[in-house]
């Protein structure tokens, strides 16, 4: 009997213990005979659909989101096909459980819920042998690596080694949302210590209990990691995730022209926000060149969004200087203006001549923005006076409360709609439920990076691009915006329904690959049917037959 080469010789208990191959009770009678599974499984043979129904019911019965997260991760560890079938079939319901907002709480309690290692923990103790650590990974065809040092996990701060939940969650979305094969994904945690004193004093903390490495020690460690990846997984793209502001901008500048890499906090957030801006303009019936943007937060996300908006304005004929003056920032010390002497380098290009403003409300009143974008990680900072002022200044005020998780959002959907008398165009980073006001039901859009980075990664993989460029994220933003329907907009939703995420990712992948081919970033020949190539590349979580 001829066996499926996917098995790679595995049978019996070894097969059941491989989450990429295990089908549990769905192994057929013929497979059980051929693969030495008799007695290792209950006699009943189930279909994947029957398994899926049982799993879905079990998830829904769990009393808390954290318990649902733990159960889902356990499922992923024993049967990845069934896990991804559940996520893809029920993405709107499951995404908040495997990623934001639940993943934030999971990271905070990672030491307590840690069951089985996923990904690679590489610590300062491994200096000089990082390549050997990478070679311990069981899969060789790695195409996408998400790496963090845990310093700035969502809006929760320094979680150290507990931040591993973020790369694991991000890569789950690469597979669920864009069909990047699970065996091509590698989560990595660079453990360089933590400045979270509570964790360092906690005997259950899973990381290195030392102050966070900085300066030359940190840089040399990252450089060794990057070099080791190039040797061990030469086809891999590295996504830097949730590094602190100072390191994030610096690492992107250092490596973006040398290797295939990007920073999702800077570039992915920018793309999804720009897409939301384009959709909002369809509702306001206005032009990008007429907008004035005010950001609360001048870190990775805020500056990244501003830079991409500048590129979008330049594409419409606005000069760079004029485009930058359309983007204003408020940080922890007030309005970012040129007279301040305390500004980090990444803020200085957006520091304009203007009188100081000590508060966000003062900045709103002075600058009269058309769009207010929150990326501060400071909950409740879009207060009622601020939202009402935005509504007084604009017929349809655009208010994006993008900080994650939900507990860090600058305001809720209910607040934005209520305080603007239902006129706000609202989006958030984490999901909010539908809200009814004066007989109209609003479906708030979720400006989540999962609309962008999975498709970008898939496009890079399909084209085998040597670099990831800002143009790719600009194209991704425009592509995402075109997929928002009039029906979406009629409900107040400025992003497509999450249930369409694979369609969205495929379209973005085509756009990204087109850029790679156009700019000569790949040695691969462009296929005649690029969309067909993208779809053929996408992983299908339905079970394969092994005999």
Plain-language structure description:
The protein has 547 residues and is α/β, with parallel strands linked by helices. 45% of the residues lie in helices and 10% in strands. The protein has three domains: 5-97, Up-down Bundle (Hemocyanin, N-terminal domain); 113-259, Rossmann fold; 266-547, Rossmann fold (3-Layer(aba) Sandwich). The termini are close together. The protein has helices at 12-16, 29-34, 48-61, 65-78, 80-89, 91-98, 102-108, 110-113, 130-134, 165-178, 197-200, 215-232, 245-255, 264-284, 300-315, 320-324, 345-348, 360-367, 384-393, 413-419, 453-463, 470-482, 486-490, 501-518, 530-537, and strands at 120-123, 144-148, 185-191, 237-240, 261-263, 293-296, 327-331, 334-335, 371-374, 398-401, 425-428, 435-437, 440-442, 445-446. The chain is globular, with a radius of gyration of 24 Å. The strands form three sheets. A seven-stranded mixed β-sheet has the order 8-7-6-9-10-11-14, with helices on both faces. A five-stranded parallel β-sheet has the order 1-3-2-4-5, sandwiched between helices. The chain has a two-stranded antiparallel sheet with strand order 12-13. Helix 4 crosses helix 5. It contains 25 helices and 14 strands.
Judged by helices, strands and strand pairing, the structural class is alpha/beta
The CATH superfamily of the largest domain is identified as: NAD(P)-binding Rossmann-like Domain
CATH architecture of the largest domain: 3-Layer(aba) Sandwich
Give the helix tally.
25
Provide the low-confidence segments as ranges. none
Query: What is the domain tally?
Result: 3
Shape: globular
Mean pLDDT: 96
Helical fraction equals: 40-55%
Q: Classify the beta-strand content into a percent band.
A: 5-15%
